[in-house]
Write a structure and sequence with these properties.
Blueprint lengths: L13 H18 L5 H5 L9 H20 L10 H5 L23 H21 L2 H34 L23 E4 L2 E5 L15 E5 L2 E4 L5 H9 L11 H8 L9 E4 L2 E6 L2 E4 L11 H10 L7 H8 L35 E7 L25 E4 L16 E3 L8 E2 L3 E3 L1
Parallel strand pairs: 8-11
Antiparallel strand pairs: 1-4, 2-3, 4-12, 5-6, 6-7, 8-9, 9-10
């Protein structure tokens, strides 16, 4: 994992670095604040991880890649934490099997909290006392660590929702402010000209290595929907036999329908004549005006075909988003917001950021000229460029400040536990 900067890190005051670091650490802890130890230890499925593991893993990251190499006299908190809390960094050593993270009952929740405090304090000391030359080397690693922890904040919410949805009591992770069902604005499409465009990160500010190099793409004229697909529109798809028509589905997706895996978005349940969905705020009636969420790439692709349209490519999405401000319903200070009815568009697509991650039809592959960095941090993105699809935009569980037009999220096409929805596109 490499980053790109045009601005020099030494232009940023140490106090600003410390403030950012402490804010991110505090947000992670606030996300676990209302969880019982039992909630934080259980793993609901192999793709998910316990909250306790996330909190320890991001601390291991700072300890391994920042503190051990750069803080004189620092010793690791426990000799086995590297084995327990390494995720997939082969160059960093052996690790506990991902599917068995829920078996790690020790260290306890309190011991993980103490580990976090130890790492946070040591990082504060390093930020404050490192010499200028040393800090110039530390700052890029600190930037990576901050962004890495923000990614795990979203994963904490994804994973705890998946866990609570498996509980017959349907517990609420945290109450949300009551929002009355709204009315979605009419669906319209905005025209974008064809031509040669540059996409990818331009080198200003932070970016992951998979966002570059910046390069040219050739696009045909296209049209992009003014908003994401709503729950009400998805219900119409279901009522029209969307999950029973093989002509709408890619073969691998249809196999999952036939196997009984897909019949409605994840967490939906039939309730009388309507539908309810499990959310972080508990189980509630489905709001027809809110964007549909927790659908797989296969489902999104089938819906687009049913609607007579298609999913956008990631290049089309980025060209449409690059001149728009990054604003949306992001996670901020641990406050949960229910998915709202989307605002009306005013000259451009509404809410490209913040409601749901949006599936694109683009496979997750390297940009032309991409080279992963050497060493363990170089394993972060490049090793996963196979069999996954790109999502763009951010969602209600993405930490504030973590989204940008060039950000490339990626998941396997069958996965549904991310906060993923879709926006339609078509050829002009």
């Amino acid at each position: 994992m490499t980053i790109h900067h045009k601005m020099r890190d030494d232009c940023v005051p140490r106090s600003a670095w410390l403030g950012r670091f402490q804010k991110v650490r505090a947000l992670s802890e606030s996300l676990a604040r209302d969880l019982h130890p039992e909630d934080q230890t259980v793993q609901s499925m192999p793709d998910a991880s316990p909250t306790k593991w996330h909190l320890a893993h991001v601390s291991w990251f700072f300890e391994t890649f920042v503190l051990v190499p750069h803080l004189p006299g620092y010793t690791v908190a426990h000799s086995q934490f590297a084995y327990l809390f390494n995720s997939y960094y082969e160059a960093a050593g052996a690790r506990h099997a991902r599917f068995a993270r829920g078996l790690i009952t020790r260290p306890t929740v309190d011991e993980v909290a103490a580990y976090r405090a130890r790492v946070t304090d040591a990082m504060g000391e390093l930020i404050a006392t490192a010499g200028e030359a040393a800090f110039a080397a530390i700052a890029p690693l600190l930037e990576i660590g901050i962004n890495h922890e923000q990614q795990h904040q979203e994963l904490i919410l994804m994973d705890i929702l998946n866990l609570f949805a498996a509980n017959p009591l349907r517990p609420a992770y945290r109450p949300c402010a009551s929002v009355p069902a709204g009315t979605a604005p009419d669906l319209s499409f905005f025209d974008y000209p064809g031509g040669i465009f540059e996409i990818g990160h331009d080198g200003t500010g932070f970016a992951y290595d998979n966002e570059g190099p910046r390069h040219q793409v050739l696009l045909r004229p296209f049209r992009l929907a003014s908003r994401a697909v709503t729950n009400g529109e998805w219900i119409a798809f279901m009522e029209d036999g969307g999950y029973s028509r093989p002509d709408l589905w890619l073969s691998d997706g249809w196999a999952r329908v036939q196997a009984g895996e897909y019949s409605a978005p994840l967490y939906w349940e039939k309730a009388g004549a309507g539908w309810e969905a499990m959310t972080l705020c508990g189980q509630h009636p489905v709001d027809p005006a809110a964007p549909v969420v927790h659908v797989s790439y296969y489902e999104a692709d089938a819906y687009a075909r049913w609607a007579g349209r298609r999913l956008p490519t990631e290049a089309e999405w980025e060209v449409a988003a690059r001149d728009m401000p990054v604003s949306g319903n992001f996670l901020e200070a641990g406050a949960l917001r229910p998915l709202p009815a989307m605002p009306a568009a005013a000259g451009h697509p509404a809410q490209l950021y913040g409601d749901v991650w949006e599936w694109t039809q683009s496979p997750y592959v390297a940009y032309p000229g991409y080279r992963p960095a050497p060493g363990a941090l170089g394993e972060y993105n490049g090793k996963f460029m196979s069999s996954q699809m790109v999502l763009r935009g951010g969602c209600c569980a993405t930490p504030d400040g973590h989204a940008r037009a060039t950000y490339r999220n990626f998941f396997y096409p069958h996965q549904r536990w991310p906060f993923a929805g879709l926006r339609l596109a078509e050829d002009a």
